Amino acid sequence: MLPGRVLDVSALVDIAVAKTEYSRSIAAMCLFRGGGICIPATGLAAVLSISPMSTQVELFELVTTPGVKIDDFTHGKVGDIAEILDGSRDITAGHVIWCARSTKWPILTDRGGELTQYDQHIVIDPLP
């Protein structure tokens, strides 16, 4: 099941601060096996807004790696993401789910229960 992963905010934080090494290992394995990594721009912005400059090096290295795609939040997706959210204000959750639907990849996250409330068909790769 390892073609690629969509990284949620918690996975990006895990990569930035090396809290568990799990996210780094999964990302490396996906890229090594010819898959990819999808990072919603909304999630990346959220992490960069709260992380100190010293931890942003890991994120910069990740986002500049071949096989890693930053998915922009464009006007063409707004309607679809709004439909996913159905009144919720968690734009990042909607964007992550949109990316998972688009790529058909699991979401690496610590909030799988919350995300599956928006879409029961997404696949979650839970953080330890």
Provide the descriptors you would attach to this structure in a database record.
128 residues; alpha/beta; Rossmann fold; five-stranded parallel sheet; 7 helices; 54% helix; globular
In short:
The chain has 128 residues and is α/β, with parallel strands linked by helices. The protein is 54% helix and 15% strand. It is globular.
Structure description:
The chain is an alpha/beta fold and 128 residues long. The chain has one domain (4-122): Rossmann fold (3-Layer(aba) Sandwich). It is 54% helix and 15% strand. The protein contains seven helices and five strands; from the N terminus they run E-H-H-E-H-H-E-H-H-E-H-E. It has helices at 9-17, 22-32, 41-50, 56-63, 75-85, 91-103, 112-118, and strands spanning 4-7, 36-40, 68-71, 107-109, 124-126. Strands 3-2-1-4-5 form a five-stranded parallel beta sheet. Strand 4, helix 7 and strand 5 form a beta-alpha-beta unit. Helix 1 (9-17) crosses helix 4 and helix 5 packs across helix 6. The longest helix is centred in the C-terminal third of the chain and has 13 residues, at 91-103. The chain is globular. The relative contact order is 0.21. The mean pLDDT is 94.
